[in-house]
Amino acid sequence: MQVFLFDFDGTLTTRDTLLAFIRYVHGTWRMTCGFLRYLPQLVLMKCHLYPNWKAKQKVFTHFFAGMPLDTFNDYCRRFAADNPELLRPQGLATLSHALDKGGQVMVVSASIDNWVAPFFRHYQSSHRLSIVGTRIEVIDGKVTGRFLTANCYGPEKVRRVQELLSEPRDHYRITAYGDSRGDKEMLQYADERHYKPFR
Questions:
Q1: How far does CA 137 lie from the centroid of its chain?
Q2: Contact, 177 vs 194, CB < 8 A?
């Protein structure tokens, strides 16, 4: 069976959607102030001296902890609807072609799946399209700011994909598309790999 794995940020999109989503919800000024607060952790993260997931969760908590889930999801839907230009046309065409060929398609992203999924609402009726992203914790209908799953980055991408494959690995012909260090393991896992394919 053919399986197609697509990274989201930077591969199917033209830029990081975490920053774009925060700006969309809170505006440039509040976003800038929030990031300045966590600048030391973000710098250490870039130098590989601080865990990626921990820095990301701190930022996410700062901006969204306590927000009702309905409100958060409404922002996610509106963000996708108002920013279709974030998607690379060639990437979207490749994903559509993979579905047309009868393949199983997974969008595998470190981004929160709540705002990734609405970008693919036109394909949601297909049971062959899965959104595999970082999931967030919700308690009493409110976003806590914590992650319910491990950050879907690096080796975690492969682990999450393996959870969705019902047959042994050799039953699949896997093609992967990625653009960054966070996709390294996913690309290595594939039979056919495409690095920065839609530039």
A1: 16
A2: yes
The answer to whether residues 130 and 137 touch, using CB atoms and an 8 Å cutoff, is no
Specify the number of domains making up the chain: 1
The CATH number for 41's domain is: 3.40.50.1000
Domain that holds residue 62: 2-195
Q: How far apart are CA 93 and CA 144, in angstroms?
A: 36
Q: Tell me if 59 sits within 8 A of 34, measured CB to CB.
A: yes
Using one digit for the tens of pLDDT, what is the confidence trace for 141-170? 999 999 999 999 999 999 999 999 989 999
> 86-140 pLDDT, tens per residue?
999 999 999 999 999 999 999 999 999 999 999 998 886 668 899 999 999 999 9
Strands 2-7 and 136-139: unpaired
Q: How far is 10 from 7, CA to CA, in rounded Å?
A: 8
